[in-house]
Amino acid sequence: MSNRAGTVALPSDLTDITALLDAYYDVSPDLSDPGQRVAFGTSGHRGSSLKASFNEKHIAAITQAIVEYRAGQGIAGPLFLAKDTHALSEPATNTALEVLAANGVQVLIDARHGYTPTPSASHAILKYNHGRGENDPGRADGIVVTPSHNPPQDGGFKYNPPHGGPADTDATGWIANRANELLEAGLSGVRRVPLADALAADSTGQFDFLSSYVDDLAQAIDIDAIRNARVRIGADPMGGASVDYWGEIGERHHLDLTVVNPTVDPQWAFMTLDWDEKIRMDCSSPFAMASLIQKVSQGANYDIATGNDADADRHGIVTPDGGLMNPNHYLSVAIDYLYRHRTGWRPDTVVGKTLVSSSMIDRVAEGLGKPLIEVPVGFKWFVPGLLSGQGAFGGEESAGASFVKRDGGVWTTDKDGILLNLLASEIKAVTGKSPSELYGELTAKYGAPSYARIDAAATREQKAKLGKLAASDVTATELAGEPITAKLTEAPGNGAKIGGLKVTTEHAWFAARPSGTEDVYKIYAESFKGADHLKQVQAEAKALVDSVIA
Question: Which of 400, 248, 402 is nearest to 338 (CA)?
Fold first, then answer.
């Protein structure tokens, strides 16, 4: 832990926004450097103009590639264009609009000229496409300009197809390859008009994202219960795209809701530093959330306090009795509550989780009598279940989740931090207990797991080898004193490659995955036999993985 983690940022920590924006327009990528080419991860293309990895040319090429991709897929309906509060999001949105307008794509931008959370964009796409068949050319899709919780100097650009959720690897692979071809051709083939012409184009329209989302919330959350129980809510947008949404939620639904900090600052000067002394809007981090945690611990009059990252696809829950909840703990509580209280859901619903999420969820699902579907990392794997209503809940350990409406219909197919934060207030209203109290009851029933993630050094070659492992490459038979019960390189829920390895025993497990941006691999591990056993699992996991990728 760094010495200044959890303390307010100093002037020396702040990004030079002028230099950042200048670099967006002035710096050209060196395509011989893999780090400066277009590359889509689990949440789109990300980078920084200061590192020549997120610049005007990148966005023009990516947008033209999306235009060509959607045409090839027979998508001719409107494209919802959303952005968050990162400094690079505004110029990237403008660049995208210039290309979209030049190509005659019908674009819908925010009617309030404000910011749009990722879940609001997903909800808008799904609402527009309701009743349209899979081959209907009038289907809508969307672009969300956001690097999520990343630091202020970063930018991000992601594509959501007509199903409303993150694009799959077939789509992102095609888009990235085509964008790099356009970059290599000096943007020959990219159509573009000036911003003023794009804004005035007949193809550019407006959409009230906020009203569409906020007014529909009672379809997914028991708003009446929260209001009638007079749950006192403190909502911290953390300088992100949910800033105007929380105030409207309180006002339109007559809730006792206080927007803790309505400030929008592209430097995020008000933030407390994360574990590595970086400004990062990670609402699952006790260091990034230190200000809100302190308010609650010092007696702020909130029954539930919440935080969101910059595009509001992640949630953070703070309770007076438990402080900031571990995301795995809250997911377990949310699942247990929802599957007991949502009587309108399909009887054959299953529980969805990523393979690096807590095994407490496995035990909760078993206690509910619900099948568990375990998928690789990436929210895209939950899209089919959320669309059908059978996978009524999908969640991942990084504080991202969504679930279907109270009648079982689809709400969002992307992560929805606003929804999960409001659920915490519903849980308090209906049960009379905080989510942290309810997690204590779950541990009394199922045991208390110890969970952690660590990083281990690895070369690019070693990371590639880890990503291509076969189960047969692992010859070990024991882990931390217990017989190994499974060696997985494919997710048991859908058979998809996990891009790494997961090893399980009766009371513990670990999963190892290569980092996409650093020379490390990540080891996720958990034990129901205590913290000392967890350390043993971590040490043996590292030794095991190192031996097979050497």
Answer: 402
The SS3 of residue 96 is helix
Q: Which parts of 80-216 fold into alpha helices (H)? A: 89-102, 118-129, 169-184, 195-200, 209-214
CB 281 within 8 A of CB 288: yes
Q: What are the tokens at 242? A: 């949910």
Question: Between β-strands 141-145 and 155-160, what pairing exists: parallel, antiparallel or unpaired?
Answer: antiparallel
Per-residue pLDDT, averaged over 219-230, amounts to 98
DSSP letter, residue 195: H
Between strands 497-504 and 315-319, the pairing is: unpaired
Whole-number pLDDT of residue 154: 97
- Name the residue with tokens 């070990």: 476
Q: Which residue has the tokens 């009743």?
A: 131
Whole-angstrom CA distances from 285 to 6, 86, 209, 282, 356 are: 9, 19, 28, 6, 17
CA dihedral angle for residue 157, residue 163, residue 167, residue 171, rounded to 10 degrees: -120
Task: List 402's β-bridge partners, or say none.
Answer: 394
357 carries an active-site annotation: no
pLDDT digits (tens, 9 = 90+) for 453-509: 998 999 989 999 999 988 899 899 999 999 999 999 999 999 999 999 999 999 999
Q: Which of 48, 49, 120, 148 is catalytic?
A: 148
Q: Give the H/E segment covering residue 488.
A: strand 486-490
Nearest to 313, CA basis, from 156, 161, 425: 156
Overall pTM surpassing 0.85 (yes/no): yes
Relative to beta strand 508-514, strand 520-527 is: antiparallel
At 3 the pLDDT is 87
Q: Rounded distance, CA 160 to CA 43, Å?
A: 10
Instruction: Note whether 222 and 406 are within 8 A (CB).
Output: yes
Q: Yes or no: say if 123 and 213 are a contact pair by the CB < 8 Å rule.
A: yes
Helix and strand tally (H, E) in the chain?
Answer: 17, 23
Q: What are the angstrom distances between the C-alpha of 503 and each of 179, 389, 479, 485, 488? A: 38, 30, 8, 8, 6
Please give the C-alpha separations between residue 212 and each of 76, 116, 119, 254, in angstroms, as whole numbers. Answer: 22, 11, 11, 17
Q: Report helix, strand or coil for 382.
A: helix
Confidence of residue 41 (pLDDT cuts 50, 70, 90): confident
